[in-house]
Design goal:
elongated, 22 helices, two-stranded antiparallel ribbon, 3-stranded antiparallel beta sheet, 70% helix, mainly alpha
């Protein structure tokens, strides 16, 4: 299923360190030959300071205990540079490690700079050295140290461009350490800056939104509230427009979030229009499944797409997260997706047909008759569908159902807002 692998599209929008978890996943799933993955890792590592890791990969790839001379020399350079940066940042690092001294800091950055200069002889050069030291730590793979120093740098820096760069670095470090709550906070801070009117330029603003959405995938598919929050972010007009024009592959993740999230139905109707508009520009089993059910009403096609969607989820680094349970490994999102996808087919099929042959319906849902009958009884009992089962004829009879007036009003309001934004 490497056909549907989005790593080549997603990778260029990530910091190179964030690509490593994707490569690890692909290697585990054996979507590509090991040699190809190892070469990709070395290519990434050559642009970082993680020389020891690069040496290990080289040994594994070429089955040797020797490493190239340029790697040996590069390691010497990295160690020397790290020591030099450590010395340059030492006065400020020493200050920050002293709890009594840190208590002298205030919310006023100008006051802090003056106080540091007057009392501790710490000036702009030492603050700049802290940034460079933090950045170098990140490039070496010391994400914990980098996150701490970048946080402290932002508290002191008056350089807005550098402060923004430090925030991106802090976000990447928290993602790589899997600190999802903190990462979400940094993501929201970054979004606020990007969406502000004072941001550098409209072009940079759009590009930054695209980067932010790609980075956010790590958080949204790991954080407890992520599946709701990805809809809140990606479905905003400015972000959805950026997806449609520059990153349509992100529709896979928004579509998945809608399918597994039952509480977003009013927004979902508008999203189906996006799927309909973008059918020609981007195709993906998950978006095609929605098109089959809600645009073309091709239920046999939807059944086939469900099987493809299962493979896509299992082989996607963000969707295919595995949970170990004793000797077994499960993919929770896959099970939720298939259950809700089956529900989508059922609901839409029922709204089109007033009397439904259960045998035909269960075939479309990939269920045997006994499983299907149990499933449909529970569904009718727990859902808002007004239906009853005729056991003698083996049919489900749907009662006429008028749309909720309040829902119609909300939908029309959202549609008007969308048209107003486009104007």
């Amino acid at each position: 299923m490497a056909t549907y692998d989005l790593t080549p599209r997603i990778g260029p929008n990530l910091d190179r360190h964030l690509v490593f978890p994707l490569l690890e996943f692909l290697q585990e799933r054996q979507l590509y030959p090991d040699e190809q993955i190892l070469k990709a890792k070395i290519e990434l590592l050559n642009k970082t300071n993680m020389v020891d890791y690069a040496m290990d990969i080289h040994k594994s790839l070429y089955r040797t205990d020797d490493v190239p001379q340029d790697m040996v020399e590069r390691r010497v350079e990295v160690v020397a540079r790290l020591k030099a940066l450590e010395d340059a940042a030492a006065p400020l690092v020493t200050f920050l490690q002293n709890p009594n001294a840190v208590q002298e800091l205030r919310a006023d950055k100008q006051y802090n700079l003056q106080m540091l200069n007057d009392r501790y002889q710490i000036g702009p050069d030492q603050i700049e050295a802290l940034y460079q030291y933090a950045k170098f730590q990140f490039e070496c793979g010391n994400y914990s140290g980098a996150a701490d120093y970048l946080y402290q740098y932002r508290a002191l820096s008056t350089n807005s461009e550098r402060s923004l760069s430090a925030l991106w670095g802090k976000l990447a470090a928290e993602i790589l350490m899997q600190n999802w709550d903190i990462a979400l906070e940094e993501l929201n801070r970054l979004k606020e800056i990007i969406d502000s009117k004072s941001f550098s330029s409209p072009l940079n603003q759009v590009q930054s939104r695209i980067w932010l959405m790609h980075w956010s995938l790590f958080i949204f598919f790991n954080h407890d509230n992520g599946r709701t929050q990805i809809i809140d972010l990606f479905n905003q007009d400015k972000y959805l427009n950026a997806i449609q024009t520059s990153a349509p592959h992100l529709l896979r993740y928004l579509a998945t979030a809608f399918i597994v999230n039952k509480r977003r139905r009013p927004q979902f109707k508008e999203f189906i229009k996006v799927i309909q508009q973008d059918q020609c520009s981007y195709k993906d089993p998950i978006t095609e499944f929605l098109a089959c059910v809600y645009v073309n009403y091709e239920f046999d096609g939807a059944q086939k797409k469900m099987k493809e969607c299962e493979e896509v989820i299992l082989n996607d680094p963000f969707l295919g997260k595995r949970v170990e349970d004793g000797n077994f490994s499960t993919v929770p999102l896959k099970d939720e997706f298939l259950e809700n996808a089956r529900l989508f087919i059922f609901e839409t099929y029922c709204r089109i047909h007033q009397r439904i042959d259960m045998g035909v319906l269960f075939e479309k849902l990939n269920l045997n008759y006994e499983e299907g009958e149990r499933w449909i009884v529970n569904l009718i009992r727990n859902s808002k569908l007004d239906a009853k089962i005729d056991s003698e004829t083996g049919t489900v009879i749907m009662e006429p159902n008028q749309p909720n007036v309040y829902e119609q009003l909300i939908d029309h309001t959202k549609a008007l807002q969308g048209r107003t934004y486009k104007l």
